[in-house]
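Narrative of accomplishments. A recurring question from our advisory board has been how the design workflow behaves on a single, concrete structure rather than in aggregate. To address it, we present the structure tokens for one chain from the evaluation set, followed by the sequence designed for it. No filtering or post-editing was applied between the two.
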């Protein structure tokens, strides 16, 4: 059986098959996602909010990420697993390499995700040189929520959209294997997808991406207070968690999700 890797996702893009991604935080959910056919499991620092009960992702530690990544890997089967580099663990190449090393060696991750463009491009390049598969993340960056002043749509307007596209190209040139676009207008996301050869996975970025990702708790209607407007409760219509996970995969693959009601202008 082939070893899990992010290269599998590029092949999906090449043949025009949407990539279905969900966050995972433990072995049991990871096993159910594997059975449902989820293409990629993301151990997101969103665990700080939906598992640990924090208001933001900022308090999540590297130790916590290693712990949850290892748990997910024990249930993920042959699905590739990427893990978030948490807040302030990738400010310079040496710190980022140490954090990525722990997530891959102790946690068993197949790659890491880090937020931002600009200075982060240099970090991506160094991780790539050292053989670390990297998922980049642009648009809304949850780790900078205090700087942004809240969770706001990014990339609106021609200038902001062009700047985001330029950062996406720079990250791909630096060696990123995958890009997550969060909370950006659908038109901007489509331009980015068409400009890059690596898969572009959207969350609140409309249907014109190479795939979709949701926080699993949002997709199952478990988030206190309800999930974001761009999410859908797949459990409500299916009645069981395994059926909801399978329906999410089907809807993404068929292009039924996200619909117009889940798309930001």
């Amino acid at each position: 059986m082939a070893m899990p890797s992010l290269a599998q996702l590029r092949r999906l893009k090449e043949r025009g098959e949407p990539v279905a991604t969900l966050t995972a935080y433990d072995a049991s959910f990871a096993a159910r996602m594997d059975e449902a056919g989820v293409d990629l499991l993301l151990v997101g620092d969103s665990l700080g909010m939906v598992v640990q009960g924090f208001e933001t992702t900022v308090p999540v530690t590297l130790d916590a990420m290693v712990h949850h990544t290892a748990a997910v890997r024990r249930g993920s089967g042959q699905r590739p697993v990427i893990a978030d580099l948490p807040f302030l663990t990738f400010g310079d190449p040496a710190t980022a390499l140490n954090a990525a090393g722990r997530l891959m060696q102790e946690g068993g991750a197949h790659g890491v995700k880090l937020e931002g463009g600009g200075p982060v491009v240099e970090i991506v390049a160094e991780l790539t040189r050292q053989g670390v598969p990297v998922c980049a993340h642009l648009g809304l960056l949850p780790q900078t929520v205090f700087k942004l002043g809240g969770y706001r749509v990014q990339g609106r307007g021609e200038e902001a959209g062009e700047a985001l596209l330029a950062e996406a190209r720079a990250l791909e040139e630096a060696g990123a294997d995958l890009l997550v676009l969060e909370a950006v207008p659908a038109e901007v996301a489509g331009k980015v997808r068409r400009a890059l050869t690596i898969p572009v996975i959207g969350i609140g970025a409309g249907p014109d991406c190479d795939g979709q990702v949701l926080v699993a708790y949002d997709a199952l209607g478990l988030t206190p207070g309800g999930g974001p407007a761009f999410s859908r409760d797949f459990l409500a219509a299916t009645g069981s968690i395994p059926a909801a996970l399978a329906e999410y995969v089907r809807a993404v693959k068929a292009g039924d999700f996200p619909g117009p009601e889940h798309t930001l202008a």
